[in-house]
Amino acid sequence: MKIAALIWLSLHVIHPNIDVYCVTLLIRVLRQRRKVNFNQGLDIRLMNEEMAGLLADTKCYSWSFGTAMLYFAWDRMDIEGQVRKGIDMLLEAGIHHRRLTVYVLTGFNTTHTEDLYRVMALKEYDIEPYIMVYNDRKDDQFLHHLERWVNGRLHRSVPDFGTYRYLSPSQRVEAKKILSGFKPRRLENESR
Predict the structure, then answer these.
(1) pLDDT per residue over 115-131, tens digit each?
(2) Which of 40, 127, 128, 153 has its CA 20 to 30 A from that of 146?
(3) Are residues 2 and 46 in the same domain?
(4) pLDDT digit string (tens) for 124-170?
(5) Residue 99 exposure: Cα atoms within 13 Å on the Cβ side
(6) Domain count of the chain?
(7) How many CA atoms lie within 13 A of 136 on its CB side?
(8) What CA–CA distance (Å, rounded) separates 115 from 100?
């Protein structure tokens, strides 16, 4: 089996018809039966039903090519609707939630509330978030605690970030305040 490593996020800069290009690329990868690692993450804003179906059929793997995995990014709050729509399309196409990882950029034009909100929104889908602290900021310990809690997968055994033992008392109060305002949107929509 041949291996191909592809980067999708930067393609929209160099290709004017990115949707058509991505579909063509995925069809080519499928025909050639290649294993693929989209190492920079895919742009979920471009997701449509055709691409979701092609991704479901493509052999997408993690960095080591040992685990089936797709990577996406959710860098800004203003694309929440597109992120949720893309995730729903991927799940409906038959991609298992455990095969999805979403990079969450923190500390760049976002608040702690927005950063923790995106993590909790992804946890609603049981999708693995992965925190990326902008410029590896050293001035914000809250973000580094969030990064350790999420990337160390402690969020699976300690589901309430407000009880994460490495938080200072003031950080714990902040986390609990943020979480008290969190409304699980996906669960509300499913009950209707």
Answers:
(1) 999 999 999 999 999 99
(2) 40
(3) yes
(4) 999 999 999 999 888 999 999 999 999 999 999 998 999 999 999 99
(5) 22
(6) 2
(7) 0
(8) 19
